[in-house]
Amino acid sequence: MRKIALEEHFTTPELAGSYVARPTQSDTLFADVERRLADFDELRLEMMDRTGIELMVLSVTTPGVQGVRDTKEAIRLARGANDFLAREVQKRPDRYAGFAHLALHDAEAAAAELERAVRELGFRGALINGQTNGHYLDEDRYLPFWERVEELNVPVYLHPGAMADQPAMFAHRPEIGGPIWAWTAETAAHALRLVFGGTLTRFPAVKIILGHMGETLPFLLWRLDSRREFDLGEKLAPDALPSAIIRRNIAVTTSGVCDPGALIATLQALGDDNVMFSVDYPYEDPQLACDFIESAPISEDVRAKVCHGNAERLLRL
Hints:
With 317 residues, the protein is of the alpha/beta class. It has helices at 27-37, 43-51, 71-91, 107-119, 143-152, 182-196, 199-202, 221-232, 242-249, 260-270, 286-295, 300-314; strands at residues 3-10, 53-60, 96-98, 126-129, 156-159, 208-210, 250-253, 275-276.
């Protein structure tokens, strides 16, 4: 089965080290991750050929410039990362595509860089590594950015990044402070800000992508509707329910969740047009991810949509 993977990461010489999160305490494992993040020619292509991944949509690993404090430096680094990726994609356009890296420190600059990346570099959207210096994408300062996203008709992949602060619930429990749980909670909350803050109502054509089987949101749709109506003390119109907004505006990938039960539940919750295959390379085992999607108990028509059809349509590949 043809497979397209779209939460697959790289770094640049300028970003490596200072702006690459370390999600493991093992020096050996992290050294292998760093080696694979920097590779485009040998390790990555060998893995793709071995597992049957035909195309990877590449993005800067977290935090990238979302971890930079200075606006001018973040803009410079983001543009450099996009130029770097464009050169790699141009070498192998049949194997690689790109998501733009954006400095959301400045919404107008991010909008302009997204347009350059899409129109000049041929990128398929953007991937953003969470909040930027404590600012979330539902804030009014980002209206010019969302206007440009809707105009360009490209998706925005909302990827995990560091929390802006450290709630007491994570004190003395560092093991749950990263990808095991905190990044999921942070990214799900960021997406819900776009739902409840009105961003996705104001820009109904915008498409957000969430990884990791939707960061738990597909499993909470009924409760989101129930508690929203309870809080407001009124029944909402069907198209104003949180679940309706999520189904209309959010697609998800299987990255980092190789669980048939979760896949089936997500397909039932969001529909088979809104779920796409991904690995989360080099942080997850691509062979495991590919074996999982090939053997999942779903129909061949649905498998084709998840493996490649939905990505081809959404990213216009």
